[in-house]
Design goal:
- This protein has 128 residues and is an alpha/beta fold.
- The chain has a single domain (3-120), classed as SGNH hydrolase (Rossmann fold), CATH 3.40.50.
- The chain contains five helices and four strands, in the order βααβαβααβ.
- Strands 2-1-3-4 form a four-stranded parallel beta sheet, sandwiched between helices.
- It starts with a strand and ends in a 17-residue tail after the last strand.
Length: 128
């Protein structure tokens, strides 16, 4: 069976813009259901591309990614709201991707671009 590991912030952890949804309704799990893949979701709300203990690279370092076919990565909303210099964000993202490839060279990395930040006026994930 194809295996997917998901890294991300509150959006992947189940926040839909109004409330937390059940685990089987989170974005990575919905993708897995549609494709018939096994999903491990290690997303944590409030996280971002940074060097904190729950940032992207730290989560990669805490997670055994051997045996996975794909890693789905979704951070960025919190980087917009609590910004670091762009070169710092970029370096933290690259560090996480490099750590993934070092731990599992065959891993295919899928990147989901940042979702709307609700603190900027949106009400749901469906707002344009």
């Amino acid at each position: 069976m194809t295996k997917l590991v998901a890294f991300g912030d509150s959006i992947f952890a189940g926040w839909d813009g109004k409330e937390n949804v059940s685990a089987n309704q989170r974005i990575p799990e919905l993708i897995g259901q549609q494709l018939g893949w096994q999903v491990t979701n290690v997303a944590i709300g409030g996280t971002k591309y940074d060097d904190s203990s729950n940032g992207f690279t730290a989560m990669v370092n805490k997670t055994d990614v051997t045996g996975f076919n794909y890693a789905l990565v979704s951070y960025g909303v919190n980087n917009f709201s609590w910004p670091d210099p762009l070169d710092v964000v970029k370096q933290n993202a690259v560090n996480g991707f490099n750590a993934l490839k070092k731990k599992n060279p065959q891993l295919k990395i899928l990147l989901e671009l940042p979702t709307e930040d609700f603190r900027q006026g949106s009400k749901t994930l469906y707002d344009v």
